Amino acid sequence: MDGGFEIFYEFKLVIDEMSKKNPAAMAKGIKMIQGTFSDISKHFEGCANVKADFERLKKVSMMMSSSYAFSYEVGKHLILNGIDVFYHVTAAQESWKNKEYFPFGEAVG
Fold it and tell me: Rounded to whole angstroms, how far apart are CA atoms 33 and 61?
């Protein structure tokens, strides 16, 4: 996949933003993730072996870009379109901090 370094850097920026743990930073981080998923999809288009993953990323990206409801309570809830994704976000942050990138990808995707 071309662009791996750029994608890695984009996710680092997302983690840095969401680590601020305030509503504005979380909202910005969600928008940043949507943009990162869009960037990933550009790089995946020629990879037949990850077509299913590519389709899943597109669905998540669409859900995030059309979010109509967002709620964040520090340390308790992060609700996006009626689904509490707090556990996934905190798991992704912890995995990133520990340089465990496969679990990070699972938590994000």
Answer: 8
Tell me the per-residue pLDDT of 26-62, one tens digit each, with 9 for 90 and over.
888 888 887 777 777 676 666 666 667 667 766 766 6
Residue 84 DSSP symbol:
E
Q: pTM (2 decimals)?
A: 0.64
Give the list of residues 6+ apart from residue 7 with CB closer than 8 angstroms, or none: 36, 39, 40, 43
Cβ partners under 8 Å of residue 48, min gap 6: none
Query: How far is it, in rounded angstroms, from Cα 97 to Cα 38?
Result: 23
> DSSP secondary structure string, 18-83?
HTT-SHHHHHHHHHHHHHHHHHHHHHHTT-GGGHHHHHHHHHHHHHHHT---EEEETTTEEEETTE
